[in-house]
Amino acid sequence: MKNYDVVVIGGGPAGLASAISSFDNGVKVCLIERETRLGGILKQCIHDGFGSIMFNENLAGPEYGQRYIDEFNKDDIDCLLSTYVTNIKKEEDGFTLTYVNNKGLDYLKCKALILATGCRERTVKQVDINGDRPSGVFSAGTAQNYVNILGEKIGKNVVILGSGDIGLIMARRLTLEGSKVLDVYEVMNHPSGLPRNIRQCLFDYDIPLHLSTTVTKVFGKGRVEAVEVCKVDEQMHPIEESKQIIECDTLIASVGLIPENELAESLNIEIDPKTKGPLCDKNFETSVQGVFCAGNCHHVYDLVDYVSKSGITAGKAASEYVKGTLKQEEKISFNLPSKKIFDPNKLICIMCPNGCELEVKDNEVSGNKCERGKKFALDELHNPKRSVCSYVKTTFKDRPTLSVRTNKPIDKKLIFDVMKLINDITIDRHVEVGEIIIENVLNTEANIIATSKL
Ligand SMILES: Cc1cc2nc3c(=O)[nH]c(=O)nc-3n(C[C@H](O)[C@H](O)[C@H](O)COP(=O)(O)OP(=O)(O)OC[C@H]3O[C@@H](n4cnc5c(N)ncnc54)[C@H](O)[C@@H]3O)c2cc1C
Predict the structure, then answer these.
(1) pLDDT at 354
(2) What is the pTM of this model?
(3) Which CATH superfamily is domain 2-120+257-323 in?
(4) Residues of the chain whose pLDDT is less than 50?
(5) Which atom of ligand 1 has the smallest separation from the CA of 48?
């Protein structure tokens, strides 16, 4: 049986940062990932907005992930892909892991373990919706996977339930892909996504957001034909008289994320009822000595940069545990990220997740935390600009899409013309991140560049 100092479960940004950090601290590391490629959820997050803290850049998800994958590949770290960890057993001298892959069932041993298994989506089944169960009902992350990774069209007339960031981002993606996003319904009296996403994903495309309203019924034999929506009172009970039927063929639920805890629970790790992830100390060590956790499986982070930071801390701590130099610390309940409430009357900067509220008087900008905000505010008043993120088709069956973006914002009016050009391209060759796919698109001086590797 193979023996390691540290085993990391999960090859997303948290797992990659953990593995690199443990390795850099001088221990023998193995990373296990159930999918065929490293990168975790970032592979399907082809929009930009990643890396503002770690790189001071506005990167697309796969681009951010690739930076860590490149660093990971330079190190002498063992990596098992397409491999699923099914069980962990605590032994006197460490842990025995059971895993399965195309070679069958196998085991390995380690002294310390880092759980970096990410989070899972709450589904429509977990919210109270009556009626039929036809096809055409997706969770936002599943819809994102179909559209961005598999290049599928998922529906023509779409209703979105929940104003979480994934739902908002999918509202824009589906609009760019030619679907009509009819409405977004949010049961709370305020939106739950970031203000910048409400501005750039809904307002830019005139998609209505209905607060204190929810979907109460789904209709359809075979495929979704309509949904029933209802306003809710202060106790969130549906107000019968407000019932309305909306014809649509697709319902997307963006109703929250919860840490993926199956493995932690199998080790009887104490769970924090607030975050729904393992209760940890500042080193991200759980209630079981030698087991650490990082990223969204600890608590659902809003920014990937903080996910990477948690991985760096957990990775270093796990390697110190192996060397016998880690100090035991008190367990602490981490605070969940707080969110600004969106004010539709304010000019919200979309240049980074800070979402500064800007004011412009006589061409003087205030409220901005950085120079990018100043430029954004002036552009927004005179000539609004946006980045375009999408994918081009490929001829490769196992990788039907290659994510791309404009390397700088372009005139907002040109977005759909640029999308037409992007949709006409099919790639049949190896491509590196940053490679130019269309030069000086529509004479905007912006290039369309690849944001993932093919
Ligand atoms: C739709 C969406 C939009 C987002 N937008 C932004 C944004 O604009 N800016 C930003 O900064 N952040 C954004 N985020 C947040 C950021 O992407 C996530 O916080 C981050 O990717 C989480 O990283 P992770 O490594 O914890 O989890 P993941 O990326 O989910 O990785 C977990 C990995 O563990 C693997 N795994 C799980 N269980 C097992 C097992 N038993 N055996 C083997 N492998 C296993 C999974 O296959 C997966 O690859 C967004 C997130 C989502 C979902």
Answers:
(1) 77
(2) 0.93
(3) FAD/NAD(P)-binding domain (3.50.50.60)
(4) none
(5) 8
